């Protein structure tokens, strides 16, 4: 380790502390998740519906595209409403009218302020106190049963083909008969009711609901909890402190070896001969471009659905290609081309690190991986379409069709195929890079790159840790391990290390500076990124401790951006160090523009600069 020992210690410490927090509070997610009652019953003991009905409703909801049609507990597509918040408002409005008519003979809106306050307090008390009994059941009053049934009827008809709701479905970009079977729609409504129940019932031992008073509902005086306000302020303070610490460490820890850097007289990349495996990556680039253009096309259809919710310039497209599928394919296409771009960038760089050599059968492995990815893309697209079209048996939808969860929409079997493909890529990368350790000289940058490759290879796995009927809070916990931690965390470390290798190879930075940047940036990214995963769980039924942890650590995720401007300026000045460097100015410009845009608007932009560098730095590729 030598002079890099302190940086490696920082990375190890961040990993241990970060995953300890994520794991320890993860057990809290399991233990404190809002209960799913064994049954909802009337005051005379009649069973209204059971836990099995709710779980079946969850599966039915998944088969419609789930989070691709509106949102539940704040997660999903925003073309349609959040069904939890929408149900709560509708049901409470009906409940207030029922209570008002019982007490005063008129509707709630016709009451005076004092009478409204009295009725509101009665309803609020009933909702907050709707607790689970020792036998696992929840008792509902006759008035709430009536309000629940009236509200449920609306959702049953909305997901059906009631002509009175045609315009509403058009506004929500929902096709007629989004869920064809009546019993499925009834159970799905029960599932929506359960999410509303957890959002309006007081968590034992606290003064807030299971969802920390989300959604904002004035009829029940749902307002942000004091803890939410306090930790929002604390997160800003932590952000400012984090910026100060990073600037201080950079200012006092930076050495002057960069100023003595002498660039090579010729472009180092121009001396490299492409290996067979590198040449085989050409088809990856064309596939990436095709998926990117396909994503843009799907985005255009989605955008148009906001104007015509069931048609495309008068063509009744929704009945055959609904919004939920267009959005699913739009998201999945972006994930596929982004992942494929990352993977191919790594496969291109690996032989360069290994001294310009391929290990035996590397090209064959690259070809196998490519065709496996093609099968995955085509198969998962077909599966999600057939699942939402209800052409797959309901029992097989979660496995082969549509899981219903944003960013991980593809069926579980396709998800396993994807993970196996990523592990295969990991093997190709390790066997190609490992030979570089036999070379003389400093190996710390190589070690940093291998570390990032391993993290990318294994951390898609947590997306397989939940099932079809897993609690929403538990599902969201593992889902964000993939979306936040894998994509936004370890891919970011991988990208930084990969770019460090490219810049070192070009002579833009010294080996020491590239190594320090790769290792230290990894620590900085992950110190906020790992526990910051919890900031995606605010509304899903977790405790205030998890909310506070997510708010505090996620604020640190933007800290590395404070040094971006100076770094960009330094690399800009180095572009004038040698004549051949002038042709690199646009990839370098695009790289830093990408960092800024990606950090504020999306991770997908990152891979564009990597492939721009590869294409411009090596025209023969």
Termini gap: 35 Å
Order of helices and strands: HEEHEEHHEHHHHHHHHHHHHHHHHH
Instruction: Please work out how many helical segments DSSP would assign.
Output: 21
Global shape: globular
Radius of gyration: 27 Å
Pick out the low-confidence regions.
Answer: 601-621
Sequence of strands across the biggest β-sheet: 2-1-5
Number of strands: 5
Please bin the fraction of helical residues.
Answer: 55-70%
The biggest sheet, with number of strands, parallel, antiparallel or mixed sense and barrel status, is: 3 strands, mixed
Class inferred from helices and paired strands: mainly alpha
Estimate the strand proportion: under 5%
Features:
disordered C terminus, 3% strand, 621 residues, three-stranded mixed beta sheet
What's the helix and strand layout?
Layout: H1 5-32, E1 39-42, E2 47-50, H2 51-63, E3 71-72, E4 75-76, H3 83-104, H4 113-128, E5 137-140, H5 142-158, H6 166-171, H7 182-200, H8 226-253, H9 276-279, H10 282-305, H11 323-353, H12 362-388, H13 394-400, H14 412-433, H15 444-458, H16 472-506, H17 511-529, H18 544-554, H19 564-574, H20 585-601, H21 606-617
Parallel strand pairs: 1-5
Antiparallel strand pairs: 1-2, 3-4
Helix pairs in contact: 1-17, 2-7, 3-4, 3-5, 3-7, 5-7, 8-18, 10-11, 11-12, 11-14, 11-16, 11-21, 12-13, 12-14, 14-15, 15-16, 15-17, 16-17, 16-21, 19-20, 20-21
Can you walk through the features of this model?
The chain has helices at 5-32, 51-63, 83-104, 113-128, 142-158, 166-171, 182-200, 226-253, 276-279, 282-305, 323-353, 362-388, 394-400, 412-433, 444-458, 472-506, 511-529, 544-554, 564-574, 585-601, 606-617; strands at residues 39-42, 47-50, 71-72, 75-76, 137-140. It is globular and about 90 Å long. It has 621 residues and is mainly alpha-helical.
């Amino acid at each position: 380790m030598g002079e890099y020992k302190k940086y490696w210690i920082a990375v190890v410490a961040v990993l241990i502390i970060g995953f300890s927090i994520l794991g320890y509070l993860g057990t809290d997610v399991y233990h404190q998740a809002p209960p799913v009652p064994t049954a909802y019953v009337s005051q005379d003991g009649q069973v209204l519906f059971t836990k099995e009905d709710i779980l079946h409703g969850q599966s039915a909801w998944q088969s419609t595209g789930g989070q691709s049609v509106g949102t539940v507990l704040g997660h999903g597509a925003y073309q349609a409403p959040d069904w939890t918040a929408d149900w709560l408002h509708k049901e409470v409005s009906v409940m207030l009218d029922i209570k008002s008519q019982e007490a005063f003979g008129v509707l709630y809106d016709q009451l005076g302020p004092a009478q409204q306050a009295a009725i509101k307090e009665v309803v609020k008390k009933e909702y907050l106190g709707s607790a689970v009994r020792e036998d696992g059941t929840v008792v509902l009053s006759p008035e709430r049963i009536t309000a629940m049934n009236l509200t449920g009827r609306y959702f049953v008809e909305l997901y059906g083909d009631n002509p009175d709701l045609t315009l509403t479905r058009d506004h929500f970009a929902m096709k007629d008969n989004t869920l064809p079977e009546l019993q499925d729609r009834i159970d799905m409504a029960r599932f929506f009711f359960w999410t509303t129940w957890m959002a309006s019932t007081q968590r034992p031992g606290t003064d807030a609901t299971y969802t920390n008073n989300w959604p904002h509902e004035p009829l029940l005086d749902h307002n942000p909890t004091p803890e939410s306000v306090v930790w929002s302020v604390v997160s800003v303070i932590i952000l400012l402190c984090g910026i100060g610490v990073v600037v201080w460490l950079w200012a006092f820890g930076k050495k002057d070896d960069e100023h003595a850097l002498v660039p090579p007289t010729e472009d180092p990349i121009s001396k490299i001969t492409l290996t067979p495996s590198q040449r085989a990556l050409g088809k990856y680039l064309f596939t990436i471009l095709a998926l990117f253009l396909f994503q843009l096309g799907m985005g255009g259809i989605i955008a148009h659905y906001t104007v015509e919710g069931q048609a495309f310039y008068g063509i009744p497209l929704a009945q055959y290609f609904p919004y939920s599928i267009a959005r699913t394919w739009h998201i999945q296409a972006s994930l596929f081309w982004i992942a494929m771009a990352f993977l191919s960038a790594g496969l291109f760089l690996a032989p360069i690190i290994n001294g310009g050599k391929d290990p035996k059968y590397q090209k064959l492995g690259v070809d196998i991986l490519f065709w496996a990815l093609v099968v995955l893309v085509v198969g998962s697209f077909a599966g999600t379409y057939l699942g939402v079209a209800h052409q797959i048996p309901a029992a097989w939808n979660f496995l082969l069709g549509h899981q219903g969860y944003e960013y991980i929409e593809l069926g579980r079997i396709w998800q396993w195929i994807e993970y196996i493909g990523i592990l295969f890529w990991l093997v190709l990368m390790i066997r190609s890079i490992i030979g570089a350790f036999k070379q003389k000289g400093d190996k710390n940058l190589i070690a940093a790159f291998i570390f990032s490759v391993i993290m990318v290879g294994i951390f898609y796995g947590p997306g397989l840790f939940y099932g079809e009927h897993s609690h929403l809070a538990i599902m969201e916990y593992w889902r964000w391990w993939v979306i936040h931690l894998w994509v936004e965390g370890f891919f970011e470390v991988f990208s930084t290390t990969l770019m460090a290798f490219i810049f070192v190879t070009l002579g833009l930075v010294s080996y020491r500076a590239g190594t320090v940047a790769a290792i230290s940036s990894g620590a900085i990214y992950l110190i906020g990124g790992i526990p910051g995963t919890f900031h995606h769980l605010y509304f899903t039924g977790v405790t205030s401790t998890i909310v506070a942890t997510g708010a505090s650590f996620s604020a640190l995720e933007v800290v590395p951006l404070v040094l971006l401007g100076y770094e960009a300026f330094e690399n800009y000045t180095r572009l004038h160090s040698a004549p051949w460097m002038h042709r690199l100015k646009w990839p370098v410009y695009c790289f830093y523009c990408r960092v800024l845009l990606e950090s504020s608007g999306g991770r997908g932009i990152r891979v564009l600069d990597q492939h721009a560098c590869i294409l411009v730095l090596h025209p023969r590729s």
